[in-house]
Design brief:
The complex is a heterodimer. Chain A is an all-alpha fold. Helices cover about 70% and strands about 0% of the residues of chain A. Chain B has one domain. The chains are: A mainly alpha, B mainly alpha. Chains A and B meet through helix 1, helix 2, helix 3, helix 4 and helix 5 of A and helix 1, helix 2, helix 3, helix 4 and helix 5 of B.
């Protein structure tokens, strides 16, 4: 832990790790909702309450609009549709022979492969970056640990 | 089986795709505004699906514990964080660190909720993930 690390990098690190923890809680809460209501309901309600909170946040914080880049393209507003399709795909595969563990593991693979591809190509107007050997080592370790937890971490 | 595997893989691709799209929107607006659009557009889309296929209020959602309704507010912060991070540390590192956080907190939640599990696998898995984070943390941009 003696490596000199610039402060912002540590901030990004903590934020991303914290976001992952939020995701765990979200999966737990939405999954509980789905156990009582329909899968559609378990996705519809969080979008509804989320929209309300987002409006409150926008009205109170009034976040500064970044000026530098021109108007966003229309497709940039469609992230929510892609998210909605994702929910349907995962709820479809969860109940097949893949089960939850297989669905999560393949989801991680798809996510990492496409993220790397997007970084290397600089897709969607986001900064282009080439992963280095160290990044691939980190990737291998974290994915290996995730697979151990997914496939071996449950009750024997 | 292969078909379902392809769908599960595609779901992962879409997670990354939607984070990139939201990240692009945040570049022109703000992370909070991007999260707002993600939620309201997603709400419209799911409402449309519900109108076409029905079954939105099937089951007994009124019996769910109150805390099960907290997923939405958490999602707003989650989407804003992803949109903010992806332009700063890239899609791959954002995804990787979110996965690390999700996996380790998942183990903590399982233990807190008293879920049975293989202790050795939990320790090995968390150790591998922490090692990966240490490697990523000491890398320079």
């Amino acid at each position: 832990m003696s490596n000199p690390v610039p402060a912002p990098r540590l901030l990004y690190f903590t934020a991303a790790f914290g976001a992952g923890s939020l995701l765990s809680l979200m999966v737990l809460f939405n999954g509980t909702l789905a156990a009582y209501g329909s899968l559609l309901f378990a996705s519809w309600v969080p979008h509804l309450t989320g929209t309300v909170l987002a409006i409150v946040i926008l009205l109170t914080l009034r976040p500064r609009r970044v000026g530098g880049i021109s108007r966003p393209p229309v497709w940039a507003y469609l992230g929510g549709v892609v998210g909605g399709v994702t929910v349907m795909l995962t709820s479809a595969t969860m109940n097949t022979a893949l089960a939850l563990s297989g669905t999560i593991a393949l989801g991680l693979a798809g996510q990492m492969l496409f993220s790397l591809f997007a970084d290397i190509r600089g897709l969607f107007g986001l900064p282009q970056r080439m992963p280095k050997a160290r990044d691939y080592l980190a990737l291998a370790l974290i994915i290996a640990g995730s697979l151990v937890l997914i496939f071996l971490g449950g009750a024997a | 089986m292969i078909g379902f595997a392809a769908l599960a893989l595609l779901a992962g691709v879409l997670v990354s795709l939607s984070r990139q799209i939201n990240g692009r929107l945040a570049l022109s607006t703000s992370a909070w505004e991007s999260s707002f659009w993600n939620h309201i557009v997603g709400l419209g889309f799911i409402t449309l699906i519900a109108i076409v296929f029905g079954g939105l209020f099937a089951g007994a959602p009124q019996d769910a514990p109150w805390w099960a309704y907290l997923g939405g507010p958490i999602g707003v912060v989650f989407i804003a964080a992803g949109s903010w991070l992806i332009a700063r540390i890239g899609a791959a590192q954002t995804a990787l660190l979110i996965i690390a956080g999700q996996m380790i907190s998942g183990v903590v939640i399982d233990i807190v909720m008293g879920m049975a599990g293989n202790a050795f696998a939990r320790i090995a898995g968390v150790a591998l993930i922490l090692a990966g984070m240490w490697v990523a943390r000491s890398a320079k941009d």
